[in-house]
Prior knowledge:
With 284 residues, the protein is mainly alpha-helical. It has helices at residues 2-10, 12-26, 35-58, 70-83, 86-117, 119-133, 141-148, 152-176, 180-188, 193-222, 224-227, 236-245, 249-277.
Amino acid sequence: xxxxxxxxxxxxxxxxxxxxxxxxxxxxxxxxxxxxxxxxxxxxxxxxxxxxxxxxxxxxxxxxxxxxxxxxxxxxxxxxxxxxxxxxxxxxxxxxxxxxxxxxxxxxxxxxxxxxxxxxxxxxxxxxxxxxxxxxxxxxxxxxxxxxxxxxxxxxxxxxxxxxxxxxxxxxxxxxxxxxxxxxxxxxxxxxxxxxxxxxxxxxxxxxxxxxxxxxxxxxxxxxxxxxxxxxxxxxxxxxxxxxxxxxxxxxxxxxxxxxxxxxxxxxxxxxxxxxxxxxxxxx
Length: 284
């Protein structure tokens, strides 16, 4: 009996040890999570702030005029969708961000490729890009209105200015990270500069370039509100600014949440594209 009792009392110890070991693995440096574990943490990361927000609202710690609750924001969003032209605001804002971002990408990619590959191009481009990128895009609004008027072009120009200069520098850094051994191997096999540029450097840098696109797309959305200051009469940013004038904080919250969701959706689409184009990087 004593041996049996001792055996029974010892059995839970290995189970506890395994549970502690699994818990440590979650929080180890660059540790791994299963898809289910990742989803659990992600859901908790979203729900906890919402619950805290609802608690502060219900406890009346902050007046509702300054901090409306989640239910108030949801009601205002429903009214916006049904009666206040949400579909038109959404459509025009997505169009402005997309056109401004793509215009920036089309010009910045070849310039970044050249600056990251050839030293003369780096010396010619990077000092000017470094200088301009520290100028706030808001400061360009008066000039943009003079140059482009108050139509759609001015809004697209602000988003372009907010993303282009950083994009060129980040693309150049991505290209410079291509290992020199790959370039030297291509040169040894008789590759021309053009072949090395388009068949070695560009494909090797492509995963990092797409990651940079994800980052700068987020910046494009942050500049949307700035762009829609410029004599706009529609758009998500315009709706947020208009709501500010009438102290409609519930609509401001709704607009910011919608912009966040749109940015998140586009980011996840680019992430899925990254996984589809570069499946060999999934394990890293």
